[in-house]
Every structure is written in C-alpha cells, then in structure tokens.
Amino acid sequence: MLQLVIFLVFGALCVAGAVNLLVQRHPINSALSLIVVMASLAVEFLLLGAEFVAAVQVIIYAGAIMVLFVFVIMLLNAGEEEATKGSRVAMLLGVPAVVVGSGLVAWVLVEHSSAQSAEALLGAPRTIGWMLFHEFLLPFEITSVLVLIAIIGAVVLASRLDTSTPEPGSRAAQLDKMGSVGQLREAGSPVEPVGAQNRRQG
Amino acid sequence: MLSVTTFVIVSVIKTVIAIFVLLTAVAYSVWLERKVVGHIQNRWGPTRVGPFGLLQPLADGVKFLMKEDLTPPYVYKPLYIAAPMIAVIFALTSIAVIPVGNWVNIGSIQTPLQITDVNIGLLIVLGITSMGVYGVALAGWSSNSKYSLLGSLRASAQMVSYEIALGLSLIGVLIMSGSFSLREIVDAQAGHFWGFIPNWNVFRGQEVAFFIYLMAAFAETNRVPFDLPEAETELVAGYHTEYSAMKFAMFFMAEYANMITVACLASLLFLGGWHGPLFGPHILQEILPLFWFFLRVFGFLFLYIWIRGTLPRFRYDQLMNFGWKFLFPLAVTNLVITALIVALKS
Amino acid sequence: MVPLSYYLVLSGILFACGVTGFLIKRNIITIFMSIELMLNGVNLSFVAFAAHWHLLSGQVFVFFVMVVAAAEAAVGLAIIIAVQRNRETLNVDRVNLLKL
Lengths: 202, 346, 100
Known about the structure:
The structure holds three protein chains of three kinds.
Chain A: H1 2-23, H2 27-47, H3 51-76, H4 85-112, H5 125-134, H6 137-158, H7 171-187, H8 196-201
Chain B: H1 4-40, H2 56-66, H3 77-93, E1 103-106, E2 109-112, H4 121-131, H5 133-142, H6 146-177, H7 182-187, E3 192-193, E4 197-198, H8 207-220, H9 232-235, H10 245-270, H11 282-310, H12 316-345
Helix pairs in contact in B: 1-10, 1-11, 2-10, 3-5, 3-10, 5-6, 6-8, 6-12, 8-10, 8-12, 10-11
Chain C: H1 4-24, H2 28-53, H3 57-87
C-alpha cells in the first residue's frame, strides 16, 4: 500500500517534470525539470530494488550529465525559444497524435500484461559488479573504449580549429577576420546579419 | 525490530537532533575559524561578545537576519532565490547516512546512532556531493553579472573535476572493507595489528588515498588553497557577489556544513570512526565512542582552518592541472595497486 | 503492491513526452534533453522488467544505457557549441544551408 502511494507520488512528479520540460520556453527551466524527472526516477528505481542503479542515476545522470547541460546553456547564453512555422504545425498535429498513440499503448499494456506485482529485485552492487565482469565483460570493455572516443571527440569538436595564425595581409588572414558568416555572405548566400535573431527575440 | 510508528518517531527525533547539532556545529566552526586564523595572524579573534567571543555566532545570526535583503532587479528571480536553498539542502542532507556511534539501548528501544543505515551509504554521499554543484552553478548564472558567472563557472568546473579524484580515492577503502555501508566500513577497522597500532584504513595501506581524499575534499568545498572562485581579490566574491543577508548566510552555512561532512567522512573512512579505548562504568562506555568521533572531526576542522591560515591559493590553471594531471592518475594507480594486493591476498 | 503495467505505462508516458519534445521544440539543447528523457523512460522499463522476470541483466543493461547516454551527451554538446560558434544560432530551423 505504501509502495503504491510512493509510486504514484513520484510517478506524478516524473510526468509533471516531463510535461514542464515541453511547456517551458527557456532551456534552463527545461533542464531543471529534467533533473526533477531523473531524481524521481531514482526513487522509482529504489522501489524496484535497484539500489545501485538508483545511486548511479543520481551521481552520473543528474549529477554530471545534467551539469554538463546546464554549463552549456550558461555558456552559450541560450535565450527563449521562438515558435517558427514548422514548430507550430508540429505542435498542432503532433501533440494530439502522440497523446492518442501513447493512450493506445497504455491501454494495451494495462489490458494484456499480467496483473502480478513487480516485487523488488535487490540489485546489490556486489552482484551487479560480478555480472559486469563475468557475463557482460565484452560490453563493459567496449563501452570503456566508447567513452574514450567520446572524450577525444568532444575535446576536438569544441576546440577552435585555427591552430595556425596566417600571416597578416594574406587572403587567409582576411577570411579569418571576416569569420564564417562573413565568408558566406561574400559568397552571396542569403545569410542574416549577426545578432539579428537575438535582436528579434529581445 | 521496532514497530512502524516507533520507528518513525525515533527517526524524527534523531533527525531533529542531528540537524540541531549540525547547525550549532556550523555556527561554532565559524567561531573556531575566526579564533584560530586570528591567532595564526598574531591577533585575537572575536573577544568582545561573551566570554572568548563565544556568543559571536549568535550576534552574526542576528545580523544576517536583520540585514536588508536586497534583490537586484536584473537577476533571474526564481533561480536567484532557489540557488542558496539548493546549496543548503544538499549540504545538510548527507548527515542522514553518517553514523556517529554504535547501537544504543534507550529503554527498550535499540537504535543505531545514525539516522538511517543504507546498504549504499557511501554512494549516497557521493551523489549528494555531485548534486551540490547545482547550488553554485545556478547562483552564478542567475545573478546576471560577469563576476558571478565567471566565479560560478570556475567553481563548478573545479568541483566536477575533483569529484573524480574524490570518488576514486574512496574506492580503495571500499575494496578493503567490502561494503558501501558506512557502518560496516567502520566496523572493519576495529581492533589492532602488531599489538598497538589501530586497524585504521590509513595505516592499512590507504595512506596515499587519505591524502588524495583530503586534497580533493578541500577542492570540493572550495576552501584554501583551492578557493579562487570565492576570493575577494580575484572576482569580487565569485558566485555569491550579488547575494546579501540571509541568502548569503545560507551559502556560508552550506560551505561550513560541507566542511563538517568531509571531516566526518574522513574520520569514518580512514581514521576508524568511533573506535578508541573504552574504560569506566557502563554509561561512560556508551558515551565514549561519541567523544572519540567528535575528537577526530574536531581534528579535521582544525586542520582545515590551519591550512586556511597558512597556505596561499592556487591559480586556476594550476588548480585544474593539479586535479586532472596529478590527482586523477595517482588515484587510479592507488586503486589498481589496492585491488591487486587485495586480490592476491585472498 | 504495484503491478508491472503501472511501471510500463509510466515509462511509456516519459518516452512519449520525449518524442513530443524532440518533434515540437526548435532549440537544439531542448531537443537533446528530450532524447535524454526518452533514454530515462527506457531505463525505467529495463529495471521494471528485471524485477518482473527476476533477472539482474536488466539492471546491468541500464548501466550501459547510462554510459552511452553520457558519451552521447558529451559529443552532442560539443557539436552544439561548434554549431553556435559557426552559425550564431541555436534554432534548428536556421541551420538550413544544405537545403535545396
């Protein structure tokens, strides 16, 4: 009984956070709603007995990945979102479609899945560690290589690419001074002036 | 086993006592810092308010409550008000899994001197430390000022970088104790070896891990020598530039509460928790573990304050180099060597 | 006790919210966060089934999903920073130079 109450309270918090992520216009509010969703999901994991997974969810997902998101939002000074023509069409047609679709899926799940309760399966760190190093050793090693690739990729992508400064007066230096938007404009493509979009928002 | 109502009532009482003790400890660690730093700098600390300045925290509390709480008009209000609350909440929450003594018998009720003994206590403390970064990051960004933003970016990048070395240094302890539960880690450090040396983790092979933990914890709590993000001469006041009165007091409290949590964890994980010589009548034997624990925590707080009065601060790039290029490889090496030794022994 | 279907319905709702966010939002960072929401919904499904069938593999797989999500978030955010640096915008509708 207590488990049902806890499930409903934190499930409602999850759904409220998810809907708030969609409704909010400023990305920082969406990021904070996502953190609320992740924390409530950690409680749901605890209800299912997955204590190690719940702790890792808080430490890694809510405590590191979302910090990365918040950093990027702070650094790039993301402003409020504007609703373009495409997004208005998507909202008008898409939201009812997704509601109907997920309602259908939920109805099928409730009707056809067994009514037996999901008792907690204690996921002690020791047993999970054992499985990670015995049955799941190959995926473990491959994901470690994947993380290494991601680290190198992120550092390379986010660094500035102009490691060599061209000599002053050359064509390369002139292009450097114009920047990428200026180069496009010189090539004749219809690029808006820098900051026009920010000005339009403000 | 206790009935549900008894359990709830006992837990509520323990929580109230723990929060009260923690907040008093925070207030008096501020007093201790001012006195000790004052004596290091060859001056008295606070002496006027009460004997030895002992009522100074009370006066400070009244001052903070009565100051004008100024909210600048250009801040992003929801996060500006929420950020100090987030910082304080996560600073105070980790007391829930920290044990201070053995099981005690009060009347007919047996209860541990800990609010709750979870199987994954160490992971919970690490998780709360990770979430504490948000208070700093959101405070600086919502203040909408360049000093605050720079200070908070530096502080949060520093905290995130040193979390890695912190976690890795604790894994050595984990391997030696075989459990995440803080009570079991302390219980594994009972007894002596070679006759008189206590069986603490710091003497059993985790010396390097102890120093890595100390340095990483100093950086996590933004204390000297890693306190560039809140140094007055660098960035006005870093991420709490735009805060006044009670909100600033909340950041202050959060910093000292983090210090106390770090001191408690270091005592539990490396210095044997509450183990110490027990003597005397039965009631004294119940109180003595508490006393030994507080002695260790006090020692760590004194160490924190002593280092604050003595060392200059790191420059930011020196700080990040130290965390990534020295502490992190050292922590990984310590982990590998500990794992090898434990595996070869068993 | 909580039936398995309740957990699956919650997971489905989170996934649907993630899909909706991915389709209707125009800010790159918010789209990215909708992807993370979808991954979280799937994690809940994994853990619920692990409890139902008494297999611990479900919980181990959540671990791998989280690691992959972390790697993807790091690289994706680096790409977002590169896009902002080159196109001065975070609106996906304006990154359209390759359109015919």
